[in-house]
Specification:
By secondary structure, the protein is mainly α. The protein has 13 helices and 6 strands.
């Protein structure tokens, strides 16, 4: 049971987090370092500091408060007083995170129940529609069926083939641009390419779910999302930020773009090695260009794209874009608050800002080059 709120329990009380509570790695958030904690029963997530996490990580039911306090003092050189324990244990208890305590506070339970009415908010212009009753079980079945393809003997050749395809695409970029231009003059072929690209986006979303499932992730929903005239599939990984390692999270984020490019491989092979008529050749070239742009655009480091999630993991940060903007604003103004940011945070935020500007410059340059090429033709 949780300790009474009006007093600090004796050392006989050995606090333990609920076994289903999720705790993330350390992330930068502004000038601070935090860990994210999620109560899966209520669906609520919280931020805790490094010191709170130090204690929570040791709350396994085997240590009393005296032992926990001694370890904390050895690490931070300070003993915790009764008021500190009351605040920490009270916070964990109120949030439903302690073993033996309530699963969730009443306010959270009510808030969670209210989300059950969310489907009623769908309109003709925008909304979402789950397609399967148990998305996690569906992702698990898909992983059992095709998960072996994620093993190194399959992934290394696949990535090499994708790299070779993109090298060829760059080398013959003029042909691809001309093919895409011609494609837009043929409604039938354009519709076929559009259907293939839509199918590729569906596989993109499922790839996120399958890779996340491989690393212990849970898929909350698989469905359709529309913002008319656009209708796309989506796959929500419920515990993405709580996957065990940074590289598992990066692999999950990059899986969609890899799938988009993998779909293009057989069409690239036909374009390169099979004699086809001019219209078919132009359609294949257009598909390769549009499909490559579709995949690579997802790797641009702007929220909410996959590239942003990858950048956030490389920087070890959450809310990376907002934190970067705030730090750069303070630094440009020479605000003393900028000096409070640790070196790791300064490096991450400046690096992300510089990388984003380079990406934006690259996009602008590519658009200008495309316009020049089309005008020249």
């Amino acid at each position: 049971m949780t300790a009474p709120a009006d007093r600090v329990p004796t050392d006989r009380y050995r606090p333990a987090l609920r076994p289903d509570v999720l705790v993330s790695d350390e992330f930068l958030l502004g000038a601070r370092s935090v860990h994210l904690v999620k109560n899966p029963r209520s669906g609520k997530s919280y931020e805790v500091g490094v010191k709170e996490h130090f204690l929570m990580a040791r709350m396994d039911g085997t240590r009393g408060l005296e032992e926990l306090g001694a370890e904390y003092a050895a690490e931070y050189g300070k003993r915790l007083g009764d008021a500190n324990w009351q605040r920490l244990l009270g916070m964990l208890g109120v949030r439903g995170l302690l073993e033996g305590g309530p699963a969730a506070p009443p306010a959270e339970t009510a808030g969670t129940a209210a989300t059950a009415d969310e489907p009623a908010k769908r309109t003709l212009l925008r909304g979402t529609l789950p397609l399967v009753a148990d998305a996690d079980a569906t992702a698990d079945r898909l992983h059992r069926a095709v998960g072996f393809l994620l093993a190194t003997p399959f992934m290394v050749p696949l990535l090499l083939l994708i790299t070779a395809m993109e090298v060829v695409a760059v080398a013959r970029l003029g042909e691809l641009v001309d093919g895409a231009s011609a494609l837009f003059t043929n409604p039938v072929l354009l519709a076929g390419v559009a259907a293939l690209l839509w199918f590729s986006t569906a596989l993109h979303e499922l790839a996120h779910g399958v890779v996340a499932r491989r690393y212990g992730g849970q898929v909350a929903e698989i469905g359709l999302r529309w913002r008319l005239p656009v209708v796309i599939m989506y796959c929500t990984v419920d515990n993405y930020l709580y996957l065990r390692t940074r590289w598992h999270r990066i692999a999950t984020a990059v899986a969609g773009a890899v799938m988009n490019l993998a779909v293009l491989l057989p069409f690239c092979a036909v374009w390169l090695f099979v004699p086809v008529d001019d219209a078919t050749g132009e359609a294949l070239a257009g598909l390769l260009l549009l499909g490559s742009v579709q995949a690579l655009a997802m790797l641009v480091p702007f929220p909410p794209l996959d590239g942003y999630k990858i950048a956030a993991q490389l920087c070890g940060a959450t809310a990376l874009a907002a934190s970067s903007r705030e730090y750069v604003r303070l630094a440009v103004r020479r605000d003393p608050a900028a000096k409070a940011y640790p070196r790791r945070a300064r490096t991450a935020y400046l690096g992300y800002t510089a990388g984003s500007l380079l990406a934006l410059a690259g996009i602008v340059a590519a658009v200008v080059a495309l316009v020049v090429h089309l005008v020249a033709d």
